[in-house]
Amino acid sequence: MNETIANVLPHLKELQIVWRKQDFVLSSQQQEEYNLLIATRRERVQQLYQEGRVFKGSYKAKEEEF
Length: 66
Prior knowledge:
Layout: H1 8-21, H2 28-51, H3 59-65
Helix pairs in contact: 1-2
């Protein structure tokens, strides 16, 4: 994982704002940055799942559902 990017979400939010201001089009450099940020975020989320640090919901609520 790319450790130089501390928090990906603010950078993604910033790119989303720029994307809207540019009529929903990103430049090639911005697209590369977006792809890197998304890949980094996906790796981080996958790491959290592997470490068991993701809330998966209450088992009792699932039992009542059936």
